[in-house]
Every structure is written in structure tokens, then in C-alpha cells.
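It would be a great kindness if you could assist me with a short task in structural biology. The full record is reproduced below for your convenience:
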Amino acid sequence: MPDGRHTKQVSDDQRQIRGTAYHRPVMRGPGHGRGPRGRFMGPVEKPKNLGKTLIRIIGYLRQDVLPLLLVIIAILVNTACTLAGPLVIGDTIDRYIIPGDFNGLIWASVMLLAIYGISSLSAFVQGFTMASVSEKTVARMRTDLFAKYQVLSLKFFDNHTHGELMSRLTNDIDTVSAVLHMGLTRLFSGIITISGTIILMLIKSPVLTLIVLSIVPLMMLVTRLITKYTGKLFIKQQMTLGELNGKIEETISGQRVVKLFCREDRVIHEFEESNQQLKHTALKAQVLSRIMGPSMNMLNNLGFALIAGIGGLLVLNDITGAVTIGTISVFLNYSRQFTRPINELANQYNMVLSAAAGAERVFQVLDHEPEPEDAPDAVDLKEMNVKGHVEFNNVSFAYDDENLVLKNFNLKVKPGQTVALVGPTGAGKTTVINLLTRFYDVNEGSILIDGTDIRKIRRNSLRSSLGIVLQDTYLFNASVRDNIRYGRLTATDEEIEQAAKTANAHGFITRLPQGYDTILTDDGGNLSHGQRQLLAIARAVLADPAILILDEATSSVDTRTEVYIQKAMLNLMKGRTSFVIAHRLSTIRDADIIVVINNGELVEKGTHQELLNNKGFYYNLYQSQFVRTKQDQEDIIGSEAVL
């Protein structure tokens, strides 16, 4: 990472670990953060611009217009059947059951069977088609977002935590998927059902309609009172669960330290305290939220009782003349159909808001400016037969456009020379590499390769001409062979093995259980750090770069392993212009040029012996690092003798 710029990011990463899913309530299965109406019972994040976000989601859905039309038709048919069923039942009671018309009853039963059969079929078509549309839509969104990540600048990734970016690709898009799959259709269906039910009830009996509608304000009041308190409890539960997850992650990651200092009892005690706090908070949230179901049932039953009682009185006294036993049956069914979508409507709306907020964060990334395009007259470095002459001319650079990290930096490197960059942490060494690779562009000055400004070179051709071996190399969950082949995908097995031999990696690879076909675990966890570095060097050998960059490639290994890595690096560096960043000054004694950087300025330049003779900044660094025991010095001399 660039020097001295990530204090905030570290804290963000720690918050990500403790809070798990970024931007979303922490959910871990049934019973955590869920009320009787689902995971959106608690507080819901709202988008900043709902209308604009929904229009963009519709833009993705528009690619499946015909399936969406089919979904709308299926919803309308299903709703029509749902509304028609109670009418047929009420009509059957009045026309066939009370008069005792058996044939009419059979005919009505067949009609009901057809209505509910069509309703079930349309519901299946609706669910199946919408599932297909939603998965296609989020697949396109996921592809667009992942592709966007590949073209964004390194500055974007430096300014966002990995957890945040992962959350946008997983949690946020999953939320959109869930809402498209179920929430959107239920919201649409609920609105139509409520509207249709009110119209039909008013036609059948305005008096009974008022009775049904009188229950709605009570439902809304009860829902508001319950969610007011459950929302606060769910937030507290979420925070407590995040803290508990943080303790678990820290304990598992730091298990060696826990055992080394015999702190098992202490971490168990701390975990139990957090666990008990979570239990009490979650218990309050769950108990209170589960009052919602019985409360709604009680109000529904109250409505049933009022409809049955008042409707019965109207029938017995023949007050209106329009209310029959069949009408009462219709209203009993309609009251259930009416209150159910009302209960769910707020939840579905919250789901839509949550999905829109997630989609908005996805669109924020999609709208972010990618790396600037190559200049129209940009050249391909591979066609230039690169010699490796590198020149920094009056280069100044600041990550935040204010505090300069490099100040008027000048350096000329001849083809085949090895340049070592040394200096204290945060001096600007890695920044030099970031500018050479065009992860960032200079604010002032220029960087030339063989006389051509790198801003006039195509980025892909520039980076493919550079070979980089980092301190913490990354290996994929694939075979050893495929990890080396990543340097050049067209390489043959023979070329891969030759690259491994050049990197002094062939020996340990052949001793692995399946040799070159051994599958590496996550980031090469089944290899030592030195072995991972040798594979990274083999990958760079296979890429055959014109310019080589070694960024502290031996700073985390022991002296013996360092010898093997140094021999591999010497093989790799032959005939190539090389830039080496090293903490151990012993690794760069033979460099052609040692560049000393402090506070972004080039303070000294020369060979190892010249800089020692000057007794300046480098001399002080060297002395502070190599005040060792006689045995340590003998070990270093012995290692150099092997080289």
C-alpha cells in the first residue's frame, strides 16, 4: 500500500470485522434480528434517491420485457381468482345451499375448483417466471459490478475497505435479488388485492365495509407502537452481535497468542459476558416482536366477530334487505384477504427500500470514474523492443492532492542496472513503484521508459512489461502449475518447470504430495512463506518482463531462506533493469545504484561503499541495522559466501 495513508482504512477494516456485513443488519439465521414479518421488521436503510435508483433497476429489468408482462398477467389473473372465490362461495350459499339445490351446488363446486386451480397455476407461473427474471437481472448487475472493479484505479481501492466492496458484490445484490424475487410481486399483488377488495365490498354492503375498514386504524396503531420499540432493540442486538463476532474473530485469529500467554479462561469469560448480553437483548427484541402476530390475529378475530354479529342482526331484522348469509360469508373471507396484505404491505415496502439502498451503493461504484483511457496516440511497449532505460524527471506526487509524498524526484537508470530504494517507513519508496506502474499518475514531472513518457504508453502493455514480486505474494486456490502459469497463460508445462528451476523452486515442488499438480489452499496456506516467494519469482520468470520490481521480497523470511530467494532473484534479474525495495540492507550491497529517500526527497545516491564512505543518512541506517553480535555477523558472511 502507498506510504502513510491508511490510518482510517485500518479502523474501517476493524469495524468491518466487528460489524460483519457492511451497511446491513447482522443476520445469522432464524431468531437473530427477525420479527414475525421477516428480516425487514427492524430499522431499514433508505436510499438517497429512490426514484432514480428504481428507474435504473427498471433499466435492468427492461431486458426481460416479455417475461415481466407474463408475470403481470399472472398476478392479475391470480388476484382476480382470489377476489372471485369468496363471491362464488357467497352466491353458492344463497342460491344453492339454503334452497337445497343439489345440482347447482355441484356446478358451483366445479366452478370453485376451476377458479382455485387457475389461481394456483397463475401463482406458479408468477413465481417461476419472476425467479428467472430476478436471477438474470442480479447476474447482470453482479457481472457489471465485478467488471467495473477490474477497470477502477488503485486509488479507489485504497479509499474503500475490502469488506465494503465485497458487501456491495454480495450482500447488496442479494438484497436486490430477494426483493425482485418476492417483495416486488407481493407489493404489486397486495395493492391490487386491497383495491379490488374495497371496491367489491362497497358494492356488496357499505355498512359491513365500514366495519372491516374500522379495524385498519387499530392495526396500524398496534404495528407502529410495536415497531417503535423493536427497532431500537434490533439496533442494539445488531451492535451486540457485531461485538461478539469481533471477539470470536480476534480469538480464532490470535489463537497462538491466547495459548502462549495462557489466556483461555480470560477469553472464555469475556465471550460469556458478551454472549449473555446478546442473549438478553435478543430475547427482549424477539419477545416484543412476536407480539405482532397474536395482536394482528386478535384484531382479525375482532373483525370476524363484528361482521358475524352485526351482519347476523342485519339478516335477522332484514334492515337493509341486501345483506344475506352469503354476503356475511363473502365479508368474512374478504376481511382476511384485506387485512393480510395490509399487514404485509409495510414490510414489502421496507424490502423495496432496502433493496433500493443496496442497488444505490452498487450504482455508486458503477458510476465511479474508471482509470483514464489511454491517449489516442498511445504506443504499445511490446512493439518497441524495450531496453529498460528508466528516467524520473522532477517528479512530484501527492495522494490527497495536498501533502506531497514525492518532491522533485530525479533518477536515471540505465538498461540492466539494479536500483535499490531504501529509507524509513513512509519515506516514499512504494510510491515510486506505484508511479512507475501507473497505479497513480504523477502530479508534476514525467517518467520515461526508453525516452517515452509512460502516460503515452498503453497501460496493459506497460504493466505486462513489468514483473513484480511483492513481500506478501498472492497465490490462488489452484495447482502449483496453474499458479506459476498465471505469469503467462500460454506457457507449456516444460516452460513452467524451467521457470521453477530458474527460481530455485523445482526442488521443493517435486517433494510436494502431487508435485506440480498439488492444489494450494487459500493463499498458499500449505506452503511456507519462503516457498510462496519462490513461486512468485517463478511466475515472474515465466512472464519474462523487461523491467523487474522486487518490493521487500525477503523481509519476512529467515536468513537461510533469504539466501535461496536471493539466488532465485539474481537469476531473475540477469539482463533486466531492476528496482529493489529492501528492509535488510545486506540484500542490496551489490546494487548498481542505491537511492536513499527520506520524507519524499532523494537525499543520497551511490553505491554501497560510496554511501558508507559519505557517512550520511545511509551510513546511519546501515549502522543502526547491523549492530549485531559476532555470531550474527558470521552468519551473514556465511550466507553471502553461499551466494
